[in-house]
Amino acid sequence: MNREAERYDDCAIRLSGVEKMLGDMRLGPLELEVETGTVVALVGQNGSGKSTLFRLLMNLTKADSGKVELLGRPYGEDDTEADIKRRIGYVPEESNWEDLGCTTIGELHDFVCRWYPTWNETLYRSMTEEFELSGKLKLKTLSKGMKRKLSYILAAAYEPELLLLDEATSGLDPFATKRMIEHLAKFMEREGRSIFFSTHVMEEVRRLADYIVYINRGRLIGVYEKDQLLDDWKCVWVRETPQPSSGPLPGVVSVGNGEHGGLIPIISRSSSATEAALASQGNAPVRTTAMDLEDILELLAQEKIEKKAENKER
Ligand SMILES: Nc1ncnc2c1ncn2[C@@H]1O[C@H](COP(=O)(O)OP(=O)(O)OP(=O)(O)O)[C@@H](O)[C@H]1O
Fold it and tell me: Where are the beta strands (DSSP E) in the chain?
C-alpha cells in the first residue's frame, strides 16, 4: 500500500454537513464517520432517507450542501470516481441491468468483470454455486430474491474494501439470508474492510453490526455502539414502585405498573446505575432482563422528538 492510500484508509465513509431536500423532507444535516474495519448498520423507518443516503455515497445523486468522502477521497477530483468505485461494492435497493444489453447472468458477468482489476473468478464461481445461480439463467426471468443474490455476488466478487448494502437481504429466503450473513462475517475477516448496510431486520443488526446509525424522517437520531446500547438499556424489575422521596434514580426512562405478577418493570438507559441506586434504597431488583433492539431504538427516537419539542417551547 502506498503512503497516499495509507493516509486515506482510516475512514471508509465521512459525511460533513451533508443535506439534501427530498420533496418537503430534508435529509440531514448529516455528520458521520465510518471507521475502516467496522460494520455499521443504517436503520430507520420507511421513507427516512436511507436509500437516498446510499445514492449520495455512490454519487448517483448530489447533496445540496456538505461534503461526502469515501475511502478518504471526495468525488469530483480528476478520475477519482472510477478509482473509488472500483474499491466499493454497492448493492442498490433495485438493480437495473436492462440498459447493459445482457440477456443472461453469464453475459452480465462477462460485462462486469472487465471493469475490476481485482475481480476474483474463483470467488465468483463459488458464490454463484453456493447461491444456486447458473450463468445460463435469463436476467428477465429472475425473481426479486435471485436478483438480490446476483447483485450481491457481483459486488463481492471483486473483493472491494467497502461494501454498501441497501437492504441486501430483502426478499431473500431464510437459507440465502443465512448464507449472506455468514459470507459478510467472512468478508470482514480480512484487514481494512468495512460494511455499511441498511436493514429493517434487527436480527441482522444484532448479528453483524458494530455500530448503529439511526435516522428518522431525514434526521440523524444518533450513532450508537451496538453492544454498549444493549448493555446499557435493560428492564429492571422490582417489588416496590420507587418513590420520588427515596431519592433520584439515574437512567430511568419509564416505570411500569405491577401488572406483571406484582413486579414493577423499570426501563433504564443505564441499568447498572439504576440497579445500584434501587439497592441502596432498599428496593433491590428481583431481576434484570435484556431489551429488544427495536424497543430501544423506538424509545431513543421518542426522546429525540420530545427534546426537540421542549427546545421549541423555550
Ligand atoms: N428525488 C427525489 N425527489 C423527491 N423526493 C424523493 C426523492 N427521492 C426520494 N424521495 C423521497 O424521500 C423520502 C426518503 O426516501 P428513501 O427511499 O431514501 O427512504 P428509505 O429510508 O430508503 O425508505 P424504505 O425504508 O421504505 O426503503 C421518501 O419520502 C421518498 O419519496
Answer: 11-22, 25-35, 39-43, 65-70, 73-74, 88-91, 162-166, 194-198, 211-216, 219-225, 234-238, 252-255, 264-268, 287-290
List the end-to-end C-alpha distance of the chain, in Å, as a whole number. Answer: 54
pTM for the model stands at: 0.92
Residue whose CA is at the smallest distance from ligand 1 atom 1? 22
Average pLDDT for residues 152-158, to the nearest whole number? 97
Cell (9 digits) for 137: 439463467
Q: Rounded to the nearest whole angstrom, what is the distance from the C-alpha of residue 207 to the centroid of ligand 1?
A: 27
Angstrom distances, CA of residue 224 to CA of 33, 194, 242: 12, 17, 29
Average pLDDT over the chain reads 92
| Ligand 1, CB within 6 Å, residue ranges | 22-23, 25, 44, 46-52
ipTM: 0.95
